[in-house]
Specification:
Blueprint: H1 3-30, H2 33-38, H3 42-49, E1 65-66, E2 73-74, H4 76-82, E3 88-93, E4 109-116, E5 119-126, E6 133-134, H5 142-148, E7 156-159, H6 171-177, E8 185-187, H7 188-191, E9 196-198, E10 213-216, H8 217-226, E11 232-233, E12 236-237, E13 246-248, E14 259-262, E15 271-276, E16 281-286, E17 289-290, E18 292-293, E19 298-299, E20 301-302, E21 304-310, E22 312-314, E23 325-327, E24 331-339, E25 342-350, E26 358-361, E27 368-370, E28 374-380, E29 386-387
Parallel strand pairs: 3-7, 4-28, 7-8, 13-27, 21-28
Antiparallel strand pairs: 1-2, 3-5, 4-5, 6-10, 9-10, 11-12, 14-15, 14-29, 15-16, 16-17, 16-20, 18-19, 21-24, 22-23, 24-25, 25-26
């Protein structure tokens, strides 16, 4: 074979390789962020660079610094860390195929309400603790925005898209109206891999694509920092107008039992909280089984379980099957507060979107909670709660 033929063949091979590469990468760039993330293997990345694990702090440090969201006391090193960022709010679904979820136990505060179809969704507020992996992350709903707004004017809000049908349930439109868009809003559609990634294997069972989106709390806080959001946003500290709840230390462990049952839409979603006087915690069962955090393999628990009864109605915005819901998050209504194995009949009040939801007892005094995780269960005004 002469030299000219070799040169010609080399050129042909080069062009074929270049064309193939161009075709592949052009296809990749044309994929949306969810599809690109599906082509990655984040679990192996996490094992290599160790950035998917929750941050830990000196366990022997004197516990003198109270978390403003829960009253729990931590070491000064942990306080120094949490003062570098704003509260991070993450939407995590509770569809049966999505369990066990990751990171919920590390949230300081969790809100749970029906999204649609009788299936609940949780909004988890992270500030004083790091969770590591969180998910499966799902979409925004308007009433969760109202609760998120209690944690500063521009809390970091992590979600995958959201309700966007014109009308009162248009969460994505409201995010822009509030000035959150492309700022404190951490929509996966706009960020993508590696902050968000898909993992079809993490749940340990087959799951539809919508149940496979995850993120990492430190990565989400890093996005906020890249946008100039640390412990302040637009020149104001996030907690400048924040109203913390009142907290007291946990009482000496006593005796007694208490089981709180919320049937939700049926046996697959029914929730029970069972009080354990030994550690003064309520432990959660969901769908007849222990509700486990995938990160720690521990059962979900809370120190304070608060049930808010709020008006619930269909948004009537033309969305398929009329699935979008609305809750009366502002105004006032009845509530139940469970802590220390006891039930307190209460009322809640929230003046506007950015106001704190305040809880008062039957005498009109603001309730003092026990220092620890807060879990809000939001039901319609006719919602059923059975206490034994």
């Amino acid at each position: 074979m002469n030299k000219s033929v070799l040169v010609l063949l080399s050129i042909i091979v080069f062009l074929l390789c270049a064309g193939g590469s161009f075709y592949y990468f052009s296809k990749q760039s044309g994929l949306n962020s969810e599809q690109q993330a599906a082509n990655q293997n984040p679990e192996s990345l996490g094992k290599v660079n160790n950035d998917y694990k929750a941050l830990t702090f000196d366990p022997n440090a004197p516990k003198t610094e109270a978390c403003p969201l829960t009253g729990v006391k931590y070491g000064n090193d942990q306080k120094t860390w949490w003062q570098t960022h704003e509260p991070l709010v993450v939407m995590i679904e509770n569809s049966q195929p999505a369990r066990p979820q990751s990171g919920i136990n590390a949230a300081d505060v969790t809100y749970e309400a029906v999204a649609e179809g009788g299936i609940t969704r949780t909004m988890n507020v992270f500030y004083c603790q790091d969770a590591g992996i969180v998910g499966p992350v799902r979409s925004a709903r308007t009433y969760f925005l109202d609760w998120a707004s209690e944690y500063g004017g521009y809390p970091l809000y992590a979600h995958v898209g959201g309700a966007n049908t014109p009308g009162p349930a248009n969460a994505l439109g409201q995010i822009d109206d509030y000035g959150w868009g492309n700022y404190n809003d951490l929509n996966q559609f706009a960020i993508g891999f590696p902050v968000y990634y898909r993992d079809e294997t993490r749940l340990g069972h087959e799951a539809a694509t919508e149940h496979t989106m995850y993120s990492v709390t430190t990565k989400l806080w890093a996005v906020g920092k890249s946008r100039g959001i640390t412990n302040s946003a637009k020149g104001m500290s996030w907690n400048a107008n924040f109203v913390p709840y009142k907290f007291a230390d946990a009482p000496t462990a006593g005796s007694g039992s208490q089981v709180i049952s919320i049937p939700w839409s049926g046996p697959d979603y029914a929730v029970t909280w069972t009080y354990n006087p030994k550690d003064n915690l309520y432990y959660r069962n969901n769908g007849g089984e222990k509700h486990i955090d995938r990160n720690t393999h521990k059962q979900l628990s809370a120190t304070n379980v608060i049930v808010l009864f709020q008006t619930e109605q269909n948004a009537d915005d033309g969305y398929e099957d009329g699935a979008h819901q609305l809750f009366g998050t502002t105004g006032s209504g009845k509530a139940l507060v469970f802590m220390n194995g006891k039930q307190t009949k209460a009322t809640w009040k929230k003046e506007d979107r950015q106001s704190r939801t305040i809880l008062n007892d039957a005498s009109g005094n603001e309730i003092t909670f026990t220092a620890g995780k807060m879990w809000f269960e939001v039901l319609g005004t006719g919602g059923e709660v059975d206490v034994k």
